[in-house]
């Protein structure tokens, strides 16, 4: 590893942060320009990296503080400030062109806040999230969420911003759970059963794109175990949707930075020294503690 005279490591090692954030350097620069930062304080590029890392990896406040060498209070303030601002940027990446086909679907987000969540069919305390995507490129058009997960998708769909957009579009695909909603194209039922004809097979193949979009959204692990308040789920979902759309609009350079390999790369980085407590990954008990940083990696 080469070190410059000013103490910074080479840019080759900066690609490690692509594993934590899931974004390339150009995408992080775009976020920094859109926030139009004018205030002083800790480098805002570093704050954005902390916020994106929290959404992507779902590390705890303590782990983020140890990783970036800041206090837990600073990490908490950074997340409380930047996640709502990232959520407001979703409108910059939305293309509401009615000529393209849209798909609406719901998913469950496990939530620690039992005041907002409910026991759901995934056997966990979860909240419902509604997502409207464009079938052509899986770009998110609108999101809404925060209700208890033991209600049907139609209950959360009615009265949401997604309903107003679907009524304007009038050609939105949906699954059988949205039966009875006239502005949505759902499978045909016959005697309380789906009529499995050729039209149903064509509809099924097209609507399956929504499942792909939900799977990509849950690459951001905060949607697999939401530790924030239940009322903040809508902001978290919108922030993740913005970062998802940004990756589609600006194809990232780090194609090999898959989050599936993150737990191994996270604890194998040379600047981390992990020992002590335990964690679990893929059913295995891994012994580790909060990362102890021997030398600070270069910030973006």
Give a brief description.
A hairpin with a 2-residue loop joins strand 10 and strand 11 (284-287). This protein is of the alpha+beta class and 300 residues long.
Key terms for this structure?
300 residues, alpha+beta, six-stranded mixed β-sheet, two-stranded antiparallel sheet, 12 strands, globular, disordered N terminus, disordered C terminus
The residue-averaged pLDDT reads 80
Please provide the ordered H/E string of secondary-structure elements: HHHHHEEEEHHEEEEHHHEEEE
Largest sheet: 6 strands, mixed
Unreliable stretches covering 5 or more consecutive residues: 1-13, 252-300
What is the CA–CA distance across the termini? 18 Å
As a percent range, the share of helical residues equals 25-40%
Structural class: alpha+beta
Classify the beta-strand content into a percent band.
15-25%
Number of helices: 10
Work out the oligomeric state of the chains in this entry: single chain
How many beta-strand runs? Answer: 12
Question: What spatial form do the alpha-carbon principal axes imply?
Answer: globular
Instruction: Give the C-alpha Rg.
Output: 21 Å
């Amino acid at each position: 590893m080469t070190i410059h005279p000013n103490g910074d490591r080479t840019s080759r090692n900066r690609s490690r942060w692509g594993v934590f954030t899931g974004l390339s350097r150009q995408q992080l620069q775009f976020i920094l320009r859109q926030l139009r930062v004018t205030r002083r304080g800790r480098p805002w590029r570093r704050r954005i990296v902390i916020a994106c890392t929290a959404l992507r990896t779902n590390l705890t406040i303590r782990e983020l503080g140890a990783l970036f060498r800041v206090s837990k209070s600073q990490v908490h303030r950074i997340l409380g400030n930047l996640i709502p601002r990232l959520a407001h940027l979703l409108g910059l990446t939305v293309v509401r062109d009615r000529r393209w086909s849209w798909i609406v679907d719901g998913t469950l987000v496990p939530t620690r806040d039992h005041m907002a969540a409910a026991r759901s069919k995934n056997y966990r305390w979860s909240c419902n999230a509604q997502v409207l995507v464009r079938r052509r490129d899986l770009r998110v058009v609108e999101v809404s969420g925060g209700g208890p997960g033991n209600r049907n998708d139609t209950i959360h769909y009615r009265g949401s911003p997604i309903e107003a957009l679907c009524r304007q579009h009038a050609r939105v695909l949906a699954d059988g759970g949205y039966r009875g909603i006239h502005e949505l194209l759902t499978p045909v039922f016959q005697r309380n059963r789906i009529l499995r004809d050729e039209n149903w097979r064509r509809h099924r193949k097209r609507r399956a794109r929504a499942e792909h979009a939900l799977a990509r959204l849950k690459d951001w692990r905060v949607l697999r175990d939401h530790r924030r308040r239940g009322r903040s789920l809508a902001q978290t979902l919108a922030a993740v949707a913005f970062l998802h759309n940004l990756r589609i609009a600006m194809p990232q350079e780090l194609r090999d930075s898959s989050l599936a390999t993150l737990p191994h790369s996270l604890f194998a980085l040379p600047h981390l020294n992990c020992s002590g407590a335990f964690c679990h990954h893929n059913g295995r008990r891994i012994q580790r503690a909060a990362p102890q940083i021997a030398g600070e990696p270069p910030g973006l």
